[in-house]
């Protein structure tokens, strides 16, 4: 797309400077970055890009720009100046936040009234609301509170043709019109630029306790995990951690202090012979540590909860057979982060093997982070949906000139 | 109204025993729960399988026949109202529960399965299906998916979309697609999320994978009687401010209590504002939180608090609440149910304003609402036999919706836009917002045959030019008409 653009990068830079101000525009190689200050400026920039066929990448702090297929963008939309919490209606338990606000900044402000968006994404200190939503990231709290689909109640977006549209609203319960925000969540910036998000909020978990159990092999947790998920306990988070040496299971419960002993007793009963000890909140950072592993392939695997222990066990075996160094964090909702440190061929073999294995349960494997050369020789998404033609038609309707992150998402959308 | 040739094609698709064309039988399908709108369909089909639905939709697509899918017809916004001479696809015969997976907490059902039957099926294993619209003993999952139905417990448990993992959908061109998966985060656009609540305008769902939830250890239901709904509303705000997330918070005013009492003798305390609080979870937690709730009620001047002492008593409390709409027939010959949503904090002000507006036109409004999430159900009472009163009541009900939007809320929390609130949708959203929604509709249904003339304030044809509305070439040429 960039190669057919009729105007030069310098002309592009000049034009963007008239929209956002010269000090907000910078050029590095073939990409011009523009840090606009509001949706109207982004609208004007997109109209310009659309009519000149220039590919655009929206960007918060860039923590997840390596996810998905590579995009060569002529314009990078820097959202970092749209970084305010616009509204916190704490009695209504809702908030409106600009897309460039970092997750931690937003949560710190919401905490003044004892509230939070009940989601624990990667790199909260750096990652922005817009990027987290576009990539549909979320961590272990999802077991109790659901994912972004369940927490977002409205959104403002700018479309490829510059249209500024709102969807949803500021109330938790609302079925008026289509939920465009569900389409935008997880669409990797291919359908529009998210400029503002409305969330429903939850009370902060005032009193929490984490317990950890250790076993030599994941299948030793199979019975405990099944009975925990089938119990009437409502843990906030449950995960398995796996490396070459051992397997660990962590459980976090939020409850009034006077109830904690009772929960502890119930948990011990569920775990039976496997010993459970109080541990530290730091164990919930492990997923992020896996993503920070240098030169590793990082996979997002999705399977059914009842399959988790078996899957972990098989992963351990495959890795051992192929001499691959592997580390895994598996959440009880079936979402698994796995890092493989290996040569590209072995990684591709394991990904193919996993996809074949997961097909029967409707599971999936996405290669989120892939070291350099492997990125182009691998289908990072592995989308097998028969709705792909429909998805492409949606993309065509929203972005007929293919300027928004072209090729980034499934089926090279 | 349908040409005989089209009817014969439909007969091939579903067989003679799956086709209704006789006028007296068609009348059953001329409206849904919103009975003041009635349109005769051209034919009704009763398919038994996804393949039969697909065959029907292909006939419709081939001849550009508008169709609407229908479950039990309990919808309150006219979503299942037929197009004149169009086809009604009744999914009543597709009522099998296809799979129950307790370990992974999901069930796969056909769209004609009744909401409460899902819970009945998984109750022996200690599970339930959370969305519980008041019509749950008759309404179907397919209809719930179309409307994104809620119920009294969505404050804590969410809506139909929260519990929908995957859908099989027959697209308006007759193709069958799978949206979503029983596993989370399939690498695709969240089209299942978009489809839920699209009110039948994006296709026909033929299979639904639903999440089920473990029944909590303890459920406690409290009734608290206050002088006014405003005082009950303040109590709700204080409960939320105390960092609690009850499974339900319901308020009824005097008129609603009277009606419910007359209908099901729920033994409610007579008062100006009755608050129902339900807490669930591990026993010790519920006990601790209920003590706090009782204290908050007392601080807000509750005259009486009453904790249901048995499951039977608890069921009776809910029976009264869920019967409240139908019970209005006991105190008024006719009534209009509305479904506005407001931010919770606007409750006292909006209730006073509704009072003022009703008094000004000489009508009574009963109020039943899901107070925890700000979903109001004002019931405008009137008598059709009095000349001009129905128009006055309709006007009042629409002005209440505008009030909800002006207060930062929505025109519908769970009943859908349907035929009833199309104009109000235009009050809530701007033209660019509506045009953007149209991009989705046009991608799914470029021929505009899947429940056309619903939801949106005016029909737009799907031209190829995206973005802001421009007249379709057919419209400019005078071949098609935009209503």
Helix content of chain B: 25-40%
Specify the structural class of chain A: alpha+beta
What share of the residues of chain A does DSSP label as strand, in percent? Answer: 15-25%
What count of domains describes the coordinates of chain A? 4
Work out the radius of gyration of chain A.
Answer: 22 Å
CATH architecture of the largest domain in chain B, by name, is 3-Layer(aba) Sandwich
Strand order of the largest sheet of chain A: 15-12-14-13-17-18-16-19
Oligomer: heterodimer
Strand order of the largest sheet of chain B: 15-12-14-13-17-18-16
Query: Looking at the structure, what is the overall shape of chain A?
Result: globular
- Give the low-pLDDT segments of chain B: 465-474, 478-483
Estimated helix fraction of chain A: 25-40%
The top-level CATH class of the largest domain in chain B is Alpha Beta
Show the largest interface: A-B, 86 and 93 residues
Count of individual helical segments of chain B: 17
Write a structural description.
The complex is a heterodimer of chains A (413) and B (483). With 413 residues, chain A is an alpha+beta fold. Chain A has 4 domains: 2-80, Uridine Diphospho-n-acetylenolpyruvylglucosamine Reductase, domain 2; 85-203, Uridine Diphospho-n-acetylenolpyruvylglucosamine Reductase, domain 3 (2-Layer Sandwich); 208-281, Alpha-Beta Plaits, CATH 3.30.70; 287-377, Alpha-Beta Plaits, CATH 3.30.70.600. Helix content of chain A is 29%, strand content 25%. Chain A has an 8-stranded antiparallel beta sheet. Chain A is globular. Chain A starts with 8 loop residues before the first helix and ends in a 15-residue tail after the last helix. The model of chain A has no long low-confidence stretch (mean pLDDT 95). Chain B is an alpha+beta fold. Chain B is built from 17 helices and 18 strands. Chain B has helices at 4-14, 23-26, 50-63, 115-122, 141-147, 154-157, 191-195, 229-241, 254-264, 283-299, 311-322, 324-327, 347-360, 389-406, 422-428, 431-444, 473-476, and strands at 19-20, 43-45, 67-70, 87-90, 97-101, 106-109, 127-128, 164-170, 176-180, 204-211, 213-214, 218-226, 248-253, 273-281, 304-307, 334-337, 364-370, 375-382. In chain B, the strands form 4 sheets. A 7-stranded antiparallel beta sheet of chain B has the order 15-12-14-13-17-18-16, with helices on both faces. A 5-stranded antiparallel beta sheet of chain B has the order 5-6-10-8-9. In chain B, helix 1 runs antiparallel to helix 3 and helix 13 (347-360) runs antiparallel to helix 14. Chain B is globular, with a radius of gyration of 23 Å. Classes of the chains: A alpha+beta (413), B alpha+beta (483).
């Amino acid at each position: 797309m960039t190669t057919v653009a009729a105007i030069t990068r310098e002309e592009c830079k000049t034009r963007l400077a008239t929209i956002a101000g010269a000090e907000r525009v910078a050029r590095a190689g073939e990409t011009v970055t523009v840090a606009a200050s509001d949706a109207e400026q982004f609208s004007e920039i997109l109209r310009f890009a659309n009519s000149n066929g220039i590919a655009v990448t929206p960007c918060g702090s860039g923590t997840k720009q390596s996810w998905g297929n590579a995009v060569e963008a002529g314009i990078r939309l820097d959202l970092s100046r749209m970084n305010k919490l616009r509204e916190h209606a704490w009695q209504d338990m809702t908030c409106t936040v600009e897309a460039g606000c970092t997750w931690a900044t937003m949560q710190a402000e919401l905490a003044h009234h004892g509230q939070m968006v009940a989601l624990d994404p990667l790199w909260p200190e750096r990652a922005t609301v817009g990027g987290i939503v576009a990539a549909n990231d979320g961590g272990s709290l999802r077991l109790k509170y659901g994912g972004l689909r369940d927490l977002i109640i409205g959104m403002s977006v700018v479309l490829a043709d510059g249209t500024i549209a709102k969807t949803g609203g500021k109330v938790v319960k609302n079925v008026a019109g289509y939920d465009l925000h569900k389409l935008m969540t997880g669409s990797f910036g291919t359908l529009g630029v998210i400029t503002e998000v409305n969330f429903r909020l939850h009370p902060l978990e005032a009193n929490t306790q984490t317990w950890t159990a250790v076993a030599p092999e994941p299948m030793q947790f199979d019975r405990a995990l099944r009975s925990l998920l089938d119990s009437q306990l409502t843990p906030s988070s449950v995960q398995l951690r796996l490396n070459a040496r051992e397997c660990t299971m962590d459980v976090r419960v939020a409850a009034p202090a006077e109830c904690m002993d009772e929960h502890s007793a119930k948990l011990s009963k569920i775990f039976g012979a496997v010993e459970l000890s109080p541990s530290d909140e730091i164990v919930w950072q492990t997923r992020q540590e896996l993503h920070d592993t240098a030169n590793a392939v990082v996979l997002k695997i999705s399977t059914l909860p009842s399959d988790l222990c078996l899957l972990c066990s098989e992963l351990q075996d495959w890795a051992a057979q192929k001499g691959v160094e592997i580390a895994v964090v598996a959440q009880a909702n079936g979402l698994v982060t796995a890092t493989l440190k290996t040569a590209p061929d072995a990684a591709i073999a394991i990904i193919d093997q996993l996809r074949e294995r997961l097909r029967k349960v409707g599971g999936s494997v996405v290669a989120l982070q892939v070291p350099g050369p492997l990125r182009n020789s691998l289908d990072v998404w592995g989308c097998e949906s028969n709705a792909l033609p429909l998805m492409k038609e949606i993309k065509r309707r929203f972005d007929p000139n293919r300027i928004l992150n072209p090729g980034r998402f499934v089926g090279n959308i | 109204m349908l040409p005989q040739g089209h009817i014969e094609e439909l007969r091939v698709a579903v067989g003679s025993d799956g086709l209704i064309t006789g006028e007296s039988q068609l009348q059953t399908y001329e409206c849904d729960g919103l009975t003041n709108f009635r349109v005769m369909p051209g034919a009704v089909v009763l398919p038994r399988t996804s393949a039969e639905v697909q065959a029907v939709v292909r006939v419709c697509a081939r001849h550009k026949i508008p169709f609407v899918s229908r479950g039990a017809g309990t919808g309150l916004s006219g979503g299942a109202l037929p197009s004149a001479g169009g086809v009604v696809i009744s999914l009543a015969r597709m009522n099998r529960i296809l799979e129950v997976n307790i370990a992974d907490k999901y069930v796969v059902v056909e769209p004609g399965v009744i909401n409460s039957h899902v819970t009945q099926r998984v109750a022996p294993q200690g599970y339930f299906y959370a969305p519980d619209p008041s019509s749950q003993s008759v309404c179907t999952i397919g209809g719930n998916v179309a409307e994104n139905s809620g119920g009294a417990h969505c404050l804590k448990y969410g809506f139909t979309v929260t519990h929908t993992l995957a859908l099989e959908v027959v697209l308006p061109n007759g193709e069958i697609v799978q949206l979503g998966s029983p596993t989370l985060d399939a690498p695709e656009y969240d089209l299942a999320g978009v489809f839920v609540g699209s009110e039948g305008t994006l296709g026909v769902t033929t299979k639904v994978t639903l999440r089920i939830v473990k029944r909590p250890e303890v459920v406690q239901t409290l009734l608290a009687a206050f002088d006014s709904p405003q005082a009950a509303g303040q109590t709700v705000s204080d409960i939320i401010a105390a960092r609690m997330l009850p499974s339900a918070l319901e308020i009824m005013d005097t008129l609603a209590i009277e009606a419910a009492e007359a209908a099901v003798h729920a033994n409610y305390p007579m008062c100006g504002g009755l608050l129902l609080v339900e807490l669930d979870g591990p026993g010790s937690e519920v006990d601790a939180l209920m003590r706090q709730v009782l204290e908050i009620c007392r601080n807000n001047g509750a005259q009486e608090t009453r904790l249901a002492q048995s499951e039977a008593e608890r069921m009776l409390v809910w029976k009264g609440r869920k019967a409240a709409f139908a019970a209005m027939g006991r105190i008024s010959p006719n009534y209009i149910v509305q479904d506005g949503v407001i931010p919770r904090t606007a409750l006292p002000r909006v209730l006073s304003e509704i009072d003022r507006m009703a008094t000004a036109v000489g009508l009574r409004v009963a109020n039943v609402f899901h107070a925890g999430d700000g979903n109001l159900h004002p019931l405008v009472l009137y008598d059709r036999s009095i000349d001009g009163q129905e128009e006055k009541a309709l006007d009042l009900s629409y002005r209440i919706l505008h009030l909800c939007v002006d207060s930062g809320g929505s025109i519908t929390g769970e009943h859908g836009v349907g035929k009833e609130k199309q104009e109000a949708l235009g009050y809530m959203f701007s033209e660019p917002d509506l045009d953007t929604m149209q991009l989705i509709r046009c991608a799914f249904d470029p021929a505009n045959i899947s429940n056309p003339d619903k939801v949106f304030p005016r029909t737009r044809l799907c031209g190829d030019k995206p973005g802001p509305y421009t007249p379709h070439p057919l419209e400019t040429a005078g071949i098609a008409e935009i209503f």
